[in-house]
Every structure is written in structure tokens, then in C-alpha cells.
Design brief:
single chain, 237 residues, alpha/beta, Rossmann fold, Arc Repressor Mutant, subunit A, 2 domains, five-stranded parallel beta sheet, globular, disordered N terminus
Length: 237
């Protein structure tokens, strides 16, 4: 019985993480401490779309909120609804706010890469036992966000937060307008108001703010038709 593990049946676990070293570390940890017998490692949203069927029957899905080429939030919420027997755990290194309400409603647990190994293993055991966990580090971040006078939810309206999330993903105004179903002029107005409220003078400052506060996870960009032809979806402004 490894690490005090109580489960003896074969266990499929998926690790969705774009950093190879972290993905390998988590895989070894799950095998050693939780008795995982098969690990499916996925490093990008593109890879996830191709290999999604390999995750069917997974007892546990541990996923980074951002795989480099896109946010996993909407995918994870959909997967939790389709595969209710898969225990879902969101993992992030963002030092800002999580999309907490969205994940909580879907029954998804939240842990942080700054949690200690002991805290992480304890949290995953609780999740496999049927619990929904919010780790100590995430709780602290949520509390800090609530006290932060510069938190996006205190400074920006809901539509402005969505625009900021897409700007944080380096989309052009035209692409944001397509995603949100509004005019380019409306996006430009939102962008001007956001920059004024946040006292930002350059787009890179907005992107940095969105990343630091975890806002980029608030909106997932649907797969663009041009992507199928190998054409870039995002471009320089």
C-alpha cells in the first residue's frame, strides 16, 4: 500500500500541464502516492482536442488552468458535466484570482502550484474520496483578491472583464468583437475605458495586469476556422 493508499483497483489519471518537467513530476507523484496505474499526459489544448477520448474513464483529471495555447476552464466545466465519475482538480501558478465561481459550481476542486507536496497529496486524496477541495494557497489568494482595491471585479464591469480577458490572450480588437458578438467600435470603447480605469497606457501593461490577476481564464476563445488551415488567429496590433 503506497503512501497509505486505500485504493487497489487500476486507476487511470490524466495530467494536463504544458510544462514537461511539472507534468512528469505530477505523474510520478500520482503513481507513488495515489497508486495511479496509467497516466495520460497532455501538454496543450491542441493535443487535448486530438486525444480527449483517452481521458474517458479517468478517475482523476488534474489540469492547469492555462496550457499555453488556451484556457482549459470551459473545457473542464464541460468535461465535468459529461464525465461525472471523473474527479476534476484545477491547478495553477497564477498569483491572482481564480475563476472560482465557475469551477465551484461545476464541482471542481482548486489547488495551487505553491501548495506543498504534502498539501497537494492530501487534497488529491480527499478529492478521490468524494470531497471538493480548495487548498490553503487558493483560499489565501481568494481572500487577498477580496481585499485588493485593484482587483478587476472591483474596478471593471462584467463586459470590461471579458474584454480584458481576451486582451490578455493577445487577441486583436477585431477578434474580440467576433468572440463577443459586438462591433469593433464597442470593443475599442471598452478597451479605452479599461485602460483609463486601470491607469494603463500601453497594451502590454493590460496584458500583464490580466495575467497577474488570473483574468485570462475568464473567457475561452472558440476554435477559429482559420486555425484549421494553419493560419494564425492572433496577430500583432
Amino acid at each position: 500500500m503506497r503512501g497509505g493508499l486505500l485504493w487497489s483497483a487500476p486507476m487511470l489519471v490524466a495530467v494536463l500541464e504544458d510544462q514537461t518537467l511539472m507534468r512528469d513530476y505530477l505523474g510520478r507523484l500520482l503513481e507513488r502516492e495515489l497508486g495511479a496505474t496509467r497516466i495520460v499526459g497532455i501538454g496543450s489544448m491542441a493535443d487535448l482536442r486530438r486525444r480527449e477520448n483517452e481521458l474517458r474513464g479517468a478517475r482523476l483529471v488534474l489540469f492547469d488552468l492555462d496550457l499555453g495555447d488556451g484556457s482549459t476552464v470551459e473545457w473542464a466545466i464541460g468535461w465535468a458535466a459529461k464525465e461525472p465519475n471523473s474527479r476534476m482538480v484545477a491547478l495553477s501558478s497564477v498569483l491572482g484570482s481564480f475563476p472560482f465561481k465557475q469551477l465551484q459550481v461545476a464541482g471542481i476542486s482548486l489547488v495551487h502550484k505553491n501548495d506543498t507536496q504534502t498539501e497537494l497529496v492530501t487534497a488529491l486524496r480527499l478529492v478521490l474520496g468524494g470531497g471538493i477541495v480548495v487548498s490553503r494557497q487558493v483560499q489565501e489568494l481568494l481572500a487577498m483578491s477580496g481585499r485588493d482595491p485593484h482587483a478587476p471585479m472591483k474596478l471593471l464591469g462584467p463586459k470590461e472583464q471579458r474584454v480584458l480577458a481576451l486582451l490578455g490572450q493577445r487577441l486583436r480588437n477585431e477578434e474580440i468583437a467576433e468572440v463577443l458578438g459586438c462591433s469593433v467600435a464597442t470593443v475599442a470603447d471598452h478597451r479605452k475605458h479599461i485602460m483609463a480605469k486601470l491607469d494603463c497606457h500601453h497594451i502590454e501593461e493590460l496584458i500583464d495586469y490580466a495575467l497577474r490577476h488570473g483574468v485570462v481564464h475568464a473567457v475561452t476563445v472558440p476554435e477559429h476556422p482559420a486555425a484549421a488551415d494553419g493560419q494564425p488567429v492572433r496577430g500583432a496590433r
